Amino acid sequence: MCDELSSIIINKTIPPIKNTASIDGHTDVGENVDVIELGRTVCYIVAAVLINDNNEVLLIQEAKVSCYGQWYLPAGRVEPDETLTDAVKREVLEEAGCNFEPTGLICIEENGAGWIRFTFGGKITGGSLKTQDKSDKESLQAKWFADYESEKLRARDILRLITQAKTYYRCLKEDNSERSTTLLPKIISHKSIVVRSVILSELNQLLHILSIKESCHEDSDQWKTLLPTTYFSLFDIRIEDSILRTLGRCLSDVNAWQPTIVGILDVEHKGNSSENQDGIGFTVLVVLADKHIAQGTQLPKLNQDLAKWEELDRTLQDTFIAGHRERNIVPLLSLGRR
Predict the structure, then answer these.
(1) pLDDT digits 0-9 by tens, 158-212
(2) Is the dihedral of CA 262, 267, 273, 276 positive or negative?
(3) What does the DSSP assignment read for 66-78?
(4) At 171, is the secondary structure helix, strand, or coil?
(5) Rounded Cα–Cα distance for residues 198 and 265 (Å)
(6) Where are the beta strands (DSSP E) in the chain?
(7) Phi, psi at 323, each rounded to 5°
(8) Quick check: helix, strand or coil at residue 14?
(9) N or C: where does the chain have the smaller number of CB atoms within 10 Å of the terminal CB?
(10) pTM of the model
């Protein structure tokens, strides 16, 4: 079993994405791949959903000319050399007047690699709610709303985020929550947008996980295995396209199988624009099912020179499933359409 997979299953931790020698043929992050430059080739958005004990949602009133007077979540663009958590703290303070401590990611949305939004949950730790007499270029004021749907909203896309947030906060309060461990981005830099996939398939009620063979040394017959890692290209319509490229190289008949993205297991980002490291690392959980026959009756056939299936015995499978229940898996919403 590869070291990454062993760490995820046995230690119940997500290791950093270290080896990005990918099946795309690149030998290093940033070699022959898209140049990721915040504000030019990519836009990262952060937003916060705060819900108080009265089930009211915190909204801010926009000061921008294009949406003046309309209501929205505290949200904005990540600035150069800024981490995702620092960005959302800044936006909540600037727009709502409150000190905000993120506790976890509620949802990640993407419309191709060029636009990604990270929505956080968390708690207010200080400050005071912005009132009209303190209006500025960031916002006019902030208020708590119970009937937020009836307000004049800047856009109704926030409704799905609020729905996700209600599930997030409810699960945090439940003793037997399947999302008891919340996920915050790890402070790890990348030059590109990297996607590492944990791809599952089932045979005879046993889970199998796809791994990639890689030579230990250039002139050696010895192999080590890694979880497949590829790049989320600026030409991809959605993140699934990068996963389909992985499957296209690994599977002998990729068209017979349907990948379903369960969610995001881990996020890595440092925000180091001054060193050309505006990229992000995603670890994605994917389930692979046959389009035509009952699930669990056969495994996808592989390019044997490139990939292999790692079978989990009953003990490892039970450990993996238990870890899955304890670990927060962040929903991913892809807005791009083919």
Answers:
(1) 999 999 999 999 888 875 544 445 899 999 999 999 999 999 998 878 888 888 8
(2) negative
(3) GGTT-EE-SEEEP
(4) helix
(5) 9
(6) 43-48, 57-61, 71-72, 75-77, 98-110, 115-127, 141-145, 193-203, 206-215, 223-226, 229-231, 257-268, 280-290, 307-311, 332-334
(7) -65, -35
(8) coil
(9) C
(10) 0.91
Interatomic CA distance for residues 185 and 106, integer angstroms: 12
**CA 184 to CA 14: how far, in whole Å?**
12
Separation CA 147–CA 225 (nearest Å): 52
Looking up tokens 């996607």, which residue turns up?
Answer: 195
Counting beta carbons within 10 angstroms of the beta carbon of residue 337, is it exposed (0 to 12), middle (13 to 18) or buried (19 or more)? exposed
Long-range interactions of 202-206: CB distance < 8 A, separation 24+: 202/295, 202/296, 203/296, 203/297, 203/298, 203/299, 203/311, 204/296, 205/296, 206/311, 206/312, 206/313, 206/314, 206/317
Q: Are 332 and 261 in contact (CB under 8 A)?
A: yes
- Model pLDDT for residues 82-123, shown as the tens digit of each residue: 999 999 999 999 999 999 999 999 999 999 999 999 999 999
On whether the CB atoms of residues 6 and 320 are closer than 8 A, the answer is no
- 258, 288 in Cβ contact below 8 A? yes
